[in-house]
Design brief:
The protein is an alpha/beta fold. 37% of the residues lie in helices and 13% in strands. The strands form two sheets. It has an eight-stranded mixed β-sheet, with helices on both faces. It has a two-stranded parallel sheet with strand order 3-4. The radius of gyration is 18 Å and the shape is globular.
Length: 316
């Protein structure tokens, strides 16, 4: 039995890698340890329903703030990923079989937390014919049944190795927001995201719009991995060519010495510059701060995203 608390068992594919120096975090990155009652209540609901969250598995720095408000990003299909991206702290290996009761448990937790907006993500499941697309669809439908007024955001894998129709299965379940992260700039894919393909991910998001033009699309990247400003601006252009509505940009933080090194800490002023540039390129919504993550403030951001579209259409 693997003990996922042990780094060499959690990331066996990284065990042979030399340690990378972990630089000291600047003042604008540091966050307090979670201690609030709201945090504990959210944690207890997750435990009672035997649910995994990307907040914990990926070591998100915002977990204290989000969980204190009852907001948690639920990670379906287990806690073991079939890929080994060098930036990611989610465990790698052979996953267990899907739990057919998980969609119901997720829906119960959403109802109990009283979420107006919920984010559902997953590990990569290249071992499944459809990459887990039907499990996503079942989870969306279960939430709709238990909490019909809640809006739903999915953060999906790329379905790179899935049979045809996987993407369509998720889109047909009608999430309010379809998110898939590009994660980094193209030239870093071979070292940062070796199991993925930049233009496949971009095309996935473009196809969502072709299938349902009204569905909001969203994607994000990390900075501080070794990219330069021009390559980030090019990603913005590529996203807009794919008609992506919402872009997130956050600082990469190195989970362990075995993970990809932090090239540098991008300053808040640089993030403000990226936000201004992205809005100038036509995104409806942009979140670009050192602590920005895909689901950080997702509920408030969704309300702003919807309002921005109405304003653009002259219906505000």
């Amino acid at each position: 039995m693997r003990d996922l608390r042990m780094p060499d068992q959690r990331h066996p594919e990284k065990a042979h890698r030399p340690d990378q120096e972990q630089p000291k975090k600047p003042s604008w990155i540091r966050v307090k340890a979670p201690t609030s009652e709201g945090y504990k209540q959210t944690r207890d609901i997750m435990r009672e329903n035997r649910l995994s969250t990307v907040c914990e598995e990926a070591g998100c720095p915002n977990v204290g703030e989000c969980w204190s408000q009852g907001h948690a990003t639920m990670m379906i299909m287990g806690e073991i990923c079939t890929r080994g991206c060098t930036f990611c702290n989610v465990a790698t290996g052979k996953p267990n079989a899907l739990d057919v009761f998980e969609p119901g448990r997720v829906a119960h937790a959403v109802q109990k937390l009283g979420l107006n907006h919920v984010v559902i993500t997953s590990v990569d499941r290249d071992d499944l014919d459809d990459g887990g697309a039907d499990h996503f669809a079942q989870t969306i439908r279960a939430i709709r049944h238990r909490s019909p007024s809640s809006t739903i955001e999915v953060l999906t894998p790329d379905f790179l190795k899935s049979k045809p129709g996987a993407l369509e299965t998720v889109v047909e379940a009608r999430p309010d927001v379809f998110n898939h992260n590009l994660e980094t700039v193209p030239h870093l894919y071979t070292t940062v995201r070796p199991g993925a393909r930049y233009f496949h991910s971009l095309r996935l998001l473009q196809k969502v719009k072709e299938l349902d033009p009204a569905m909001f699309t969203k994607s994000g990247i990390m900075v501080g991995l070794g990219e330069d400003r021009q390559s980030v601006l090019q990603v913005m252009d590529d996203m807009r060519a794919a008609d992506i509505d919402f872009m997130t940009i956050g600082q990469y933080l190195q989970p362990t010495p075995k993970h990809h090194r932090v090239d540098r800490f991008v300053t808040p002023e640089e993030f403000a510059g990226y936000e201004k540039a992205a809005y100038g390129k036509g995104f409806l919504m942009v979140s670009a701060t050192p602590l920005t993550r895909s689901s950080y403030h997702a509920g408030d951001d969704f309300a702003q995203l919807r309002d921005a579209r109405l304003k653009k259409l002259g219906r505000a």
